[in-house]
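hey so u asked for the seq, here:
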Amino acid sequence: MTDYGHPLEFGTFLTPTAQDPDRVVGLAELTEAAGLDLATFQDHPYNPAFLDTWTLLSWVAARTERLRVSGNVINLPLRPPAVLARAAASLDRLSKGRFELGLGAGGFWDAIHSMGGGRRTPGQSVDALSEAIDLIRAVWDTDARGGVRLQGEHYSAHGMKRGPEPAHDIGIWLGAYKPRMLRLIGAKADGWLPSLGYAKLEDLPGLNATIDESALEHGRDPRQIRRLVNLTGAAFSPSDDGFLQGPPEQWVEQLLPLALELGFSTFVMPTDDPRAIDTFGQEVAPALRRAVEAERTSTGTPTGPVRPVAALTARRPGIDYDAVPHGLRDTAVEPGDKGFTKLRHGYMQRGRPGLVLRPTGPDQVAEALAYALDQDAPLNVRSGGHGISGRSTNDGGVVLDLGRMNGVEVLDAATGRVRLGAGARWGEVGAVLHQHGLAISSGDHGGVGVGGIATTGGLGYMSRAHGLTIDRLTAVELVTAAGEHLRVDADHHPDLFWAVRGAGANFGVITSVEAVAAPVRDVVLGQIAYDAADTAAFLRTWGEVAESAPREVTAFLALGQGRAGQGPVAQAMVVFAGDDTDAAVQALEPFLKVGPVLDQRAQVAPYPAILVGHAGPHEGGQTPVARSALLEHITDESAEAVARALATGDAYFAQLRQVGGAVNDVAADATAYPHRSANFSLAAMGRRADVLDRRWAELGATARGLYLSFDTRTGPEVLAEAFPEPALGRLRALKAAYDPDQVFDQNFPIPPGD
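ran it, structure tokens below
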């Protein structure tokens, strides 16, 4: 008995007749409506009676929402693999992961030759197909470095750039019957797609065995290869007229051995009959699924994705990989998996977690959390992964990545009510809200995750006009350490609602937030470069000008070390939260008098456009030494301390973010972020903690607390500065109530109260 444990799938094999294109598209739409999974089309580019298959695949993908599409099979000799790889990845991305690549070595050589495709012997066809698979996979492998280089007898690439990456792991399925092709499937392919008639039922076990033997010889598990079959000649009839020539219940009975004894899990019906499609989807598919599931349950047949042997050797100790909850298995990523590189690192930190779990909702978050707590490994939670201190990745542990929970929903544009998934990044949020004339102040980078900034604080370009990000929240949904899904707001668990706005990482996994966005569409952005050689004097003047600006203005200032004997250069981003250019010019003009101006420009821009863009995954690096302080004013003491840190090289970068205004309108005890008298947030980065700490101590009493997201220190003294009493005592009491076992102990953990 051979059951490879793949979930069952069902599809159609439709004739791409050019004479009636609407009919074939309509049959594909019916395939989806009938509950089937897949629509496939033959590919004969030399036949003018047929539509071009690639064009048809694209059109059908655009006309459907759930249906996956594939050639059955794509004619390789007439579709160069380098171009085919990019076309496949492009269609997969456009369809959000709904393309599969059924690939054929070729046939009808006279017709292929007539189109310039040449001729190949059977042996050459297999060799060419093998080279094409290598080339296609190399183009898709954007994790690898350098260009694609392949010198084959039939296909070559000489430094071709990789990408785009498909939206999912596209399956490469081969239709084959001869021994060499079957061995190629075992060595390299993801699926075998024969047709009944070409392959007799009695021959299938032997053909399967050849594939399995080849897979084992090449270090693969035979279960990695899906077995598909075209049910050629099948038809529904009222009575039993033979194999797959009868009523739906007879089909179920006759297909069951193909699934349980021969390992086939994808059944494709060649038909252009709407009634047959509907019967196949509505009656055969669900009944066969139930029968197979019942048998697998009784026999304990393993199901789910199969890891490559190489991936198994990369597993980390302390994690029970076989116990991953069923609903999370298909999207879980391990160190040996394709795509691990794109999930392992943070914004500034390199990581190598043992497992990344990617839930899609609160129930899966609770499952992931319960599973992670049973492992002998650390647990880190990630929303966007942008943090400086590296709390969103680890080495050898479990990362709960919320990136798939990234919905952005405008509940009521008139009042500004919005709902944001914790895994959404602020570039996405800003773009969606902008369509409705709305915005929420949100830091300065489009890669920032909602779950992090909406629970820590949120010092953004419009803070003085519209407050911190946490000040806009009206409700937070989270999963607690006990696995309970709570909605907290002013009326429901108000103590927890207070705590998560400033210390949210300590009390649960945030799944979504609701907030009130401000009516903002465009802002005025002023960008100014200064000669800050006289750094201390420059900073003092900067502070005076910034504090006297109207609250529509929020200014950020970045300073770096001077080069070639020159003093530091300062870069300012000054944002006027509105599109009144006359008022903006009047508000921005004083900033031109702070110091010697090297360059300046101003423009009206959509709010999302002023956020730093973020394309692609985080690539990590060496975690910096970062320090934070909150200042009521830029005094002589603080200005001179920053100037010395830059002059000595103890800090290679410093930034001042302006707060105050609407931020300070909020009472200090209204949220767990109590720093409501500060006018500036100061952050600096260095290479050595000891020397930067000495410089930081020179701030003296001018430093009034710190902003956790910009600090890499740990320990009780950090918490005492971030949450001065009575806030810390209140947080410790709540920690004892909601997380007494310190499940959430990686992101500036607060110890439970006695």
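The first strand starts at residue 9 and ends at 14. The mean pLDDT is 94.
lmk if thats what u needed
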